């Protein structure tokens, strides 16, 4: 539940923003991080930016997500799709 | 991921643990750490005398049954809409769960903001936002109340089940739990609280507290820092999480929590009442407080029979030492909260180590 995702702010209007993670875009709020600007990378948790992060940190996490997705896909193939959750 | 960094952290851990020469227990407070440790097989990389204990850091797991039953009861009302994070719908109350009931007025939301939108779009219903979680989700509930106020939405309420991580860590150590030598502290909660928040625990209980993120390299280097401290007989706060965790944390988010909530003693599943371990909505915002709006008195929390989740959450036993584990309690038919949540210790054990 406490997992946050790094995302780049691609649109901003007051404390409402559109954030991009690996091509997925969604609406977030920047109420808790008033210092962030368009183009910044933030950690998003449950729809809210909670901290600004740097490019390098974000990239590491994005890579990790890709690995997890690959691993889960492999696991599911190995289990013959028996565990779809 | 840098293999050389992983290898060198592993060596550091091994050397330090050899030097310590006795069993070492490190509690990973956060459920996301628990899952990462299993997913990456990190446990198998560690020396035999280093034991990782899964802590109470999964908000779903520690939400008491009385709270869940209250949500289930409110969900039967036709004049309400329940807005909940997805993790909560599978959690069993005394008799059933939101998922099993599959009621039309239960909506899964990704953010407290979505709950406010529901209130805007359904003026004929009262929205009950299932406000659970630690310091990561608490400020979002506060912002939602402010938003509802701004939009003049009288039909937005929150059922406050928010909890605080630090008092729980303190309660674990005060309970004469001698299995915990150090804490691997939760990354994202620490973004809000700041690494400095652990200083009093380190000072009072002489246990290293190291904040780590969720990548293999970070978890291992966090463990390496802990083991080196223990080998040197030192106790300090440290962080390997990088820039996102500052000593003072996110002051804006802390201020939102402070403005809308006050401390109270509250029940944690498996751990009992923890002094100042819970939050309630301040009187000033009582109109958003579902508990007050619906005149709810919390039902007494009962643990499912034979379920040892409480001992698992304290790091006193491992999941497979519970008689229900893998028999009566499985991923498909969970009995206790640690099997329900994807971040629960029992679910992680079952999935990865069965």
Summary keywords:
heterodimer; A: 85 residues; alpha+beta; SH3 type barrels; five-stranded antiparallel sheet; 5 strands; B: 354 residues; alpha/beta; Rossmann fold; 3 domains; five-stranded parallel sheet; 16 helices; 40% helix; 19% strand; globular
Biggest beta-sheet profile of chain A: 5 strands, antiparallel
What structural class do you assign from the helix and strand content of chain B?
alpha/beta
Proper CATH architecture of the largest domain in chain B: 3-Layer(aba) Sandwich
Largest interface: A-B, 31 and 43 residues
Looking at CATH, which topology of chain A would you report? SH3 type barrels
Tell me the number of strands of chain A.
5
CATH class assignment of the largest domain in chain B? Alpha Beta
* CATH class (first level) name of chain A: Mainly Beta
CATH topology of the largest domain in chain B: the name is: Rossmann fold
Overall 3D form of chain B: globular
SS elements, strand count of chain B: 11
Helical fraction of chain A: 25-40%
The H-level CATH homologous superfamily of the largest domain in chain B, spelled out, is HypD, alpha/beta domain 2
Indicate the low-confidence ranges of chain A by residue numbers.
none
- CATH architect. name of chain A: Roll
Radius of gyration of chain A: 15 Å
Strand order of the largest sheet of chain B: 2-1-7-8-9
Q: Helical segment tally of chain A?
A: 1
Give the topology.
The complex is a heterodimer of chains A (85) and B (354).
Chain A: E1 5-13, E2 16-21, E3 24-29, E4 41-45, E5 48-53, H1 55-78
Chain B: H1 3-20, E1 24-30, H2 31-39, E2 50-57, H3 59-62, H4 65-75, E3 80-84, H5 98-101, E4 106-108, H6 112-121, E5 126-133, H7 138-150, E6 156-162, H8 165-174, E7 182-185, H9 187-193, H10 199-205, E8 209-211, H11 216-232, E9 237-239, H12 251-260, E10 261-268, E11 272-281, H13 290-293, H14 309-313, H15 337-340, H16 345-353
């Amino acid at each position: 539940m406490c997992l946050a995702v790094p995302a780049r702010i691609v649109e901003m209007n007051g404390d409402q923003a559109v954030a991009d993670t690996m091509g997925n875009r969604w609406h977030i709020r920047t109420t808790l991080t008033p210092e962030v600007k368009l183009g910044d990378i933030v950690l998003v948790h449950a729809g809210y930016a909670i901290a600004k992060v740097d490019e390098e940190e974000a990239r590491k996490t994005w890579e990790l997500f890709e690995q997890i997705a690959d691993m889960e896909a492999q696991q599911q193939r190995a289990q013959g799709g028996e565990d779809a959750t | 991921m840098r293999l050389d960094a992983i290898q060198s952290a592993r060596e550091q851990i091994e050397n330090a643990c050899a030097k310590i020469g006795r069993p070492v227990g490190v509690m990973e407070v956060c459920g996301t750490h628990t899952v990462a440790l299993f997913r990456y097989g990190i446990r198998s990389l560690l020396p035999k005398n280093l034991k990782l204990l899964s802590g109470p850091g999964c908000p779903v797991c520690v939400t008491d049954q009385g709270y869940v039953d209250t949500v289930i009861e409110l969900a039967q009302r036709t004049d309400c809409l329940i807005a909940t994070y997805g993790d909560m719908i599978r959690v069993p109350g005394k008799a059933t769960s939101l998922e099993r009931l599959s009621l039309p007025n239960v909506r899964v939301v990704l953010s407290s903001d979505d709950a406010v939108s529901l209130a805007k779009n359904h003026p004929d219903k009262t929205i009950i936002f299932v406000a659970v979680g630690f310091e990561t989700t608490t400020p979002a509930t506060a912002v939602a109340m402010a938003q509802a106020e701004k939009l003049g939405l009288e039909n937005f309420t929150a059922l406050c089940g928010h909890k605080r991580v630090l008092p729980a860590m303190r309660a674990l150590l005060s309970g004469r739990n001698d299995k915990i030598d150090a804490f691997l502290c939760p990354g994202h909660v620490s973004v809000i609280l700041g690494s400095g928040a652990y200083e009093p625990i380190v000072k009072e209980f002489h246990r290293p507290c190291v904040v780590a993120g969720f990548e293999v390299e970070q978890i291992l280097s966090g463990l390496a820092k802990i083991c080196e401290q223990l080998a040197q007989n030192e106790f300090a706060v440290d962080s390997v999480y990088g820039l996102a965790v500052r000593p003072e944390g996110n002051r804006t988010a802390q201020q939102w929590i402070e403005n809308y909530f006050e401390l109270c003693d509250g029940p944690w599943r498996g751990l009992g009442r923890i002094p100042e371990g819970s939050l309630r909505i301040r009187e000033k915002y009582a109109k958003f407080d579902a508990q007050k709006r619906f005149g709810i008195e919390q039902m007494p929390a009962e643990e499912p029979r034979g379920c040892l989740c409480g001992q698992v959450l304290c790091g006193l036993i491992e999941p497979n030492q519970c008689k229900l584990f893998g028999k009566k309690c499985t991923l498909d038919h969970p009995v206790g909260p640690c099997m329900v949540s994807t971040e629960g210790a029992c679910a992680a054990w079952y999935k990865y180590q069965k």
